[in-house]
Amino acid sequence: MQGLTIEGVTAGYGATDIIERLDLGPLPHGELTAFVGPNAAGKSTLLRAIAGLVRTSGSIRLDGDELTRLSAGKRARRVAFMPQTPPDRLHLSVLESVIGALMVGPTDGGSDDRSPAESAMAALARIGLAERAMEPLANLSGGQRQLVGLAQALVRKPSLLLLDEPTSALDLRLQVVVMQLLRSYAREGNIVGVVIHDLGLAARWADRVVLLDEGSVVASAPPHEALTADRLNQVYGVACRLERCTRGTLQVLVDDVQGAS
Ligand SMILES: Nc1ncnc2c1ncn2[C@@H]1O[C@H](COP(=O)(O)OP(=O)(O)OP(=O)(O)O)[C@@H](O)[C@H]1O
């Protein structure tokens, strides 16, 4: 079967399971999925499990291939994961740090015979930082470093791109630029999954929203189906309204929070 399918996945740290017997998918090629939910819901753990970075059991199939049985190198050809923390080897140049992401092994990025430097420059151009390529990472702002992290994930041209809060340090304009970029990368035939706290951005740009709570999937559906006032009340403990703005985009308006003084 094409796409990403997760069945009976349990994942966690040490002896503690954060996610238990989780089923999800298939998430098809061409779509952008937003993973939302409260702090500590298990969003990052789920993405790390898919990327092979935490203790995981169960089945995670990409286009029918069992990812959990692939070697780390083979998995990295097909799956890229952008962590919450931006690149921190500050002495490297921006270009070097993106080239470094190519060095974990060969990619499945098509019949591209560009050099690593050319591929890295193309990824930097895509996120608008080509002109800063020769500068040390230390010269960049926090948001710009977060964009370099995105270039590191994109440069491998993974068919499954996973990103953990890629817009958390970005200004209003760049948040939209990144969401547009991720959707267009999905439309090129890839599967994109993004953890995001801003439900407005998720509703505006994602094809599907996966709402997680306490390590379980509460909803997995197009945004307007997944995000309902009742569910958000149950999961986040907020009294809220969902309204459509003039362009039809869903907006979440929080009126009150439970447990606040
Ligand atoms: N490296 C780790 N070792 C042990 N426990 C961890 C580790 N990382 C996360 N956890 C625990 O796993 C649970 C889920 O964390 P996770 O980071 O997956 O949640 P999240 O939904 O991404 O949260 P947030 O929105 O706050 O980033 C939390 O209780 C957290 O304490």
Automatic annotation (TrEMBL):
<keyword id="KW-0547">Nucleotide-binding</keyword>
<protein>
    <submittedName>
        <fullName>ABC transporter ATP-binding protein</fullName>
    </submittedName>
</protein>
<keyword id="KW-0067">ATP-binding</keyword>
<feature type="domain" description="ABC transporter">
    <location>
        <begin position="4"/>
        <end position="239"/>
    </location>
</feature>
<dbReference type="InterPro" id="IPR017871">
    <property type="entry name" value="ABC_transporter-like_CS"/>
</dbReference>
<dbReference type="InterPro" id="IPR003439">
    <property type="entry name" value="ABC_transporter-like_ATP-bd"/>
</dbReference>
<dbReference type="InterPro" id="IPR027417">
    <property type="entry name" value="P-loop_NTPase"/>
</dbReference>
<dbReference type="GO" id="GO:0005524">
    <property type="term" value="F:ATP binding"/>
</dbReference>
<dbReference type="InterPro" id="IPR003593">
    <property type="entry name" value="AAA+_ATPase"/>
</dbReference>
<dbReference type="Pfam" id="PF00005">
    <property type="entry name" value="ABC_tran"/>
</dbReference>
